[in-house]
Design brief:
Layout (H helix, E strand, L loop, with lengths): L1 E10 L3 H8 L2 H8 L4 E2 L6 E4 L4 E9 L3 E8 L9 E10 L2 E12 L3 H22 L1
Antiparallel strand pairs: 1-7, 2-3, 3-4, 4-5, 5-6, 6-7
Length: about 130
């Protein structure tokens, strides 16, 4: 069994700016406050949070959607990668970012929901507000 969830947040920036920051090592690091290395192409590898998170980008629709195979060092070693799909939708207040996280090892979804909010959404809102 695996767990799944869907979250959303509004970021005060254009979808193209949020999308490009996600795929840029320097900007991704700046907006989360921790080192990220991103190879911004299909099958490009990424790491974030000093290697705690790793994976590969498997689908990209410029400025609209990113799909990644995603795992952390907290996944059981025999667990397959989870899937993170991020949608970037323009809104009157900037970008509505919808994150769909599927195939999470059973019992870990609450931890990752909190992690997305605390270590991505909140810092991203602050980063784009100060830009």
């Amino acid at each position: 069994m695996t767990d799944n969830f869907k979250l959303s947040v509004t970021i005060s920036a254009k979808p193209k700016d949020v999308y490009s920051a996600w795929l840029d090592s320097k900007k991704h690091s700046a907006m989360t406050g921790s080192e990220a290395i991103v190879d911004p192409k299909i099958n490009g590898a990424f790491t974030a949070w000093d290697g705690y998170i790793e994976g590969r980008t498997i689908e990209m629709e410029p400025n609209n959607r990113i799909v990644q195979k995603w795992r952390t060092t907290g996944f059981p070693s025999d667990s397959p990668d989870s899937i993170v799909e991020i949608l970037f939708e323009g809104s009157k207040n900037g970008t509505k970012m919808i994150l769909i996280h599927t195939e999470i090892p059973e019992g870990q979804s609450e931890e990752y929901k909190k992690g997305w909010k605390d270590f991505y959404f909140d810092p991203m809102k602050a980063y784009f507000k100060s830009e």
